[in-house]
Design a protein that fits this description.
Helix 2 packs across helix 3 and helix 5 crosses helix 6. The radius of gyration is 20 Å and the shape is elongated. It has a 6-stranded parallel beta sheet with strand order 4-3-2-5-6-13, with helices on both faces. A 6-stranded parallel beta sheet has the order 7-12-11-8-9-10. A two-stranded antiparallel ribbon has the order 1-14. It is of the alpha/beta class. Strand 2, helix 1 and strand 3 form a beta-alpha-beta unit. The chain has 7 helices and 14 strands. The longest helix has 14 residues.
Length: about 250
């Protein structure tokens, strides 16, 4: 396979985005990866990179025109709803094809104790009093839970927020998701009663789901919105096949 020189914008920041950027760059696809810029020292993908927002729908549409982008691939986090919605509107507006790589959500298994909620705000409301809770939600969403003074929270973060919300009881641990065994030790050591997380899918953070199942912990699981009506792929292989189909890659 080889690229045919047409420029592609990849909305990245996920593990799938890094893998796809390398695969496409290796076959000479002219790709630009866009990162949101929320971390101070982001991991940079292979190929050209831009960092920061576009300035809404109009800003993204203008960027696509200026750079003569022939295709947009959305490989952002499943809960990065704003950039996904902006990409759909901008691409429709200027008639640029859009492919969305939809990471499949986790499915509830026998032994899972999920309490499914539509939002993090709802999860914050229904956590039992005096619980010790692991917030596996990312630093930008911590403030949603800060009013629950009756609860002890544990959050595991790669970076601290620029402005830390005021909690009565919050323990911050620097780190990232791990395998089932390490997650089990983490949950037991920190005396966790329940977990709050979003159904982001994938294997990278699934260890805590298995660990909670085996220990018998409740998980307040925030569900996703319904999939958007765009060309959706559920694997990197499907994205590559679609690129061949629309003539951006030659086999």
């Amino acid at each position: 396979m080889r690229g045919l020189g047409k420029r592609v914008l990849l909305l990245g920041g996920t593990n799938e985005g890094y893998i796809l950027a390398k695969q496409l760059t290796d076959i000479s696809v002219n790709i630009i990866t866009s990162l949101a810029g929320r971390t101070k020292n982001p991991r940079l993908p292979t190929g050209s990179v831009r960092i920061g927002g576009f300035g809404g729908v109009e800003g993204l549409a203008n960027y696509l025109r200026e750079k003569n982008i022939r295709l947009v691939i959305d490989v952002t986090h499943p809960f990065a709803n704003r950039i996904t919605e902006n990409a759909i509107i901008a691409c429709n507006k200027i008639k640029v094809p859009l492919i969305q790589l939809e990471r499949l959500p986790w499915q509830q298994m026998i032994g899972d104790r999920w309490i499914e909620t539509a939002t993090l705000e709802k999860a914050a409301e229904i956590i039992p009093q005096n619980a010790r809770v692991f917030l596996a939600i990312g630093r930008q969403h911590l403030a949603t839970f800060s009013y629950r003074y009756d609860i002890s929270f544990v959050a595991r973060l790669l970076e601290l927020p620029e402005k830390m919300p005021l909690f009565k009881k919050l323990k911050i641990i620097q780190g990232k998701p791990s395998n089932k065994e390490d997650e089990s030790r983490f949950l037991i050591k920190n005396k966790i009663d329940c977990i709050v997380c979003r159904n982001s899918g994938g294997q990278a953070s699934y260890g805590k789901i298995i660990a909670a199942r085996e220990i018998g912990l409740d998980i307040f699981m925030v569900s996703r919105k319904l999939p958007n009506k765009t060309a959706i792929a559920t694997s990197i292989e499907e994205v590559v096949k679609h690129l061949c189909k629309i003539g951006l890659i030659k086999e």
